[in-house]
Amino acid sequence: MLRADSINVQRGDTRVLEQVSLELVPGQVLGVLGPNGAGKSTLLAALCGELAVSAGSVKLDQRELSDWQGVERAQRLAVLPQSSTLNFAFKVEEVVGMGRLPHATGRERDQQIIGQALAAADAQHLLGRSYLALSGGERQRVHLARVLAQLWPGGIGQTLLLDEPTSMLDPLHQHVTLQATRRFAEQGAAVMVILHDLNLAARYCDRLLLLERGVPRALGKPEEVLQAELLQSVFGLEVLVHKHPERGHPLIIAR
């Protein structure tokens, strides 16, 4: 389990995260929402150890995150950043196979997992293709498969952090991606995903954290966080909040 207690992050003289506390619960998806510059990506960087916290603590399974060594940490924690750059003509399966590097499960097992992770990301048809020949959305799905392969098949004690994994995807593959993360959580993994689409967050997340200028404004179930008055205060957008006619989760409509 990944836990942050009262963390602050400082950039120079500016505090970009202030008093953020959260717990990533096995079997659940936590969505992180907020306007541009709210501190969402900074939070993810602090949770994976890329950024040092200036106050508070980040713990993985009750141990300080900094105490976990590289391979040991990589077997439990996988991160999909907002953008992933590769300038070499690797084949798709080679890129996904990078997720298996922390493991010693053998080539045959790794090939099975690579295929299963690509299928989960609806990218199995890209096998054999050069990564550099792919569209932006296809590349994003390949990197999703890579981080899924790193922790495959998911389980208690594993944590997946995703930074805007739907940003370059068509509507169908936005849902495919979040369905894959949902299934991963159902295997017992803890998942955190940064999103801009409030309706996707309402549909696929168990809990939501709403950030504004680095400060938590709300943390709770979608129906508790996605309130019209609060959303107008944070995003400056007037909305109507209804109940989805079939699924029952909040449905956000701009006025």
Automatic annotation (TrEMBL):
According to the entry, every stretch annotated as the ABC transporter domain falls at 2-238
Q: Does the keyword Hydrolase apply?
A: yes
Task: Report the InterPro entries cross-referenced here.
Answer: AAA+_ATPase (IPR003593), ABC_transporter-like_ATP-bd (IPR003439), P-loop_NTPase (IPR027417)
Q: Which UniProt keywords apply?
A: ATP-binding, Hydrolase, Nucleotide-binding, Translocase, Transport
Instruction: Please state the Enzyme Commission number of this protein.
Output: 3.6.3.-
Top-level taxon of the source organism: Bacteria
Cite a single Pfam family from the UniProt record: ABC_tran
The molecular function terms in GO held by this entry are: ATP binding; ATP hydrolysis activity
Tell me the function of this protein.
Part of the ABC transporter complex HmuTUV involved in hemin import. Responsible for energy coupling to the transport system.
> What protein am I looking at?
Hemin import ATP-binding protein HmuV
